[in-house]
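Posting for a labmate who doesn't have an account.
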Amino acid sequence: MKKIRFLLFVMIFSILASPVFAQRLTVRLASLVPENTAWGQSINRLAAEWSRVTNGQVTVTVFHGGTAGDEAQVVALLRSNQIQAAVLTSMGLNSITPEVMALSYPFLVRNDAELTEVLRVIKPDLDARMQRNGFVTLAWARAGWVKLFSRTPLTTPDDLRRLRLASSPDEQQMIDAFRTLNYQIVPTHLSETLTALQSSRIDALYISPVFVAGNQLFGIANNMSSINVAPFMGGILMNDVTWRRIPDRFKPALMEASRRLERDIEASIANLETEAVNTMLRYGLRINQLTPAQSQVWYDDTARFENRLVGGANPVFNREFYTRIKNILTEYRSRGR
């Protein structure tokens, strides 16, 4: 009888430990991005891949297009575990780890090569800080560059100071930064941008070319400066509560799938941005191509305000991370890259 009971115990344990009876985990992932975009499609592929590599034990339900709320609401839902993962822009990431916003310091990081070098050095530290704040970074994604669009050509910072510059009221740090730089900021929700341009309430905006093309803002703001204002960053986070529930044996494969998503999104966004600019050029957009000397004027002008942007008791940007990025770039540029 003892032998029979032992064999029954082994059989029951084996059945309960099998994938069929293993605890299944559903991850609710929120995204502001519409499903029919490069980001949206990549996220759907990630969801399918996670299900495949875990034999269905981890499934991802995606809430596309902001249906779970805006970024502030999504971060609150992440903290309360009503949502387990989310696609966030630098604004949402900043609410969790403020150091992230140093990447958006105007005219600091100037091109793709510089951004690659900066992220290579600082990403491990940012990941560690996210972890200490209760989140796991599944992927970082470069979503193109923020550009200046305007009614009239922009060659110098003073050209821009004469215009009314739109900034999202949800991006208070960027409003503070551009006001510190003595630009005339007009808080304008993205959904109101076209109406604001049509009514002449604003004359210029800093934004992704993809958004400008998709919303046909270039019909009025038909000048785009060639200078990069800042990289447009995004990331996918999962709260640590949920990450700990995932069996350790699956985590390497899940992270690898997430890293592939990083690469896919970056390639897709780069192509999409190029296509958006080319399309706008065919329909009347003018690129104000700055010479190296003209670009340097913008860099030098912003440098005049460094102490106000990162100094004092309430700096606009985290001084430690700004200094680290600046030092990385100084060393990188000294190598003639």
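Reply:
Got it, the structure tokens are right above this. The CA atoms of residues 6 and 65 lie 54 Å apart.
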